[in-house]
Known about the structure:
- By secondary structure, the protein is α/β, with parallel strands linked by helices.
- It has one domain: Collagenase (Catalytic Domain) (3-Layer(aba) Sandwich), CATH 3.40.390.10.
- 35% of the residues lie in helices and 17% in strands.
- It contains five helices and eight strands; from the N terminus they run βαβββαββββααα.
- The chain has a five-stranded mixed beta sheet with strand order 2-1-5-8-7, sandwiched between helices. Strands 3-4-6 form a three-stranded mixed beta sheet.
- A hairpin with a 4-residue loop joins β3 and β4 (49-51).
- The two termini are 25 Å apart.
- 35% of the residues are buried.
- The chain binds zinc ion (2 copies).
- One zinc ion binds at residues 131, 135, 141, 151.
Amino acid sequence: MGVIIFWDRQAPEGIQLPVARIISQILDIPVDVRENPVMIRGFDRQRNQHNARAILDDMQDKYTRVNGMADSLLLVIPGDLYLPGGDFVFGLARQGINAAVVSTARLANGWYGREHRDDDIIDRVAKEGAHEIGHLIGLDHCDNPECIMFLPETLDDLDRKKKMLCPQCRKLLESFCGQEPVEP
Ligand SMILES: [Zn+2]
Ligand SMILES: [Zn+2]
């Protein structure tokens, strides 16, 4: 069991490998990056955003139904995401198809009028990606503001998180993955 990242052609270039490496470290799982083979639909012209649910519907129809879902899939796209009834989401996971989507739009300093730094967007995509894959593996949200599974509502929330699971979530992850917990 591992993770495959589908990196969209329009998403920021040159940061795929560091993002994959950090996610692999956070979750202790092999991560592979490929070019995204799935057409990105669900664009809402009026909102200038993509419906995250529609994108996962397509992942189901066009990819996991045909190719199976042995590996967790993480789709990384540049377009801003929303869910009906809300303003925006950083990402969305659907455990039933073992697939998730993350948008880089609000993870870039440029969105907030700040100067671009590769390290910032690498850390944020990795944190948000690891969070959504955590859901696919079976983790829920965590109250610890420094834990990857904390639900961030703002960029500051996301930046406050460390690139790791808290001890409780780590223990849960190990139990889901069928490994013996490592003694401290
Ligand atoms: Zn979440
Ligand atoms: Zn936690």
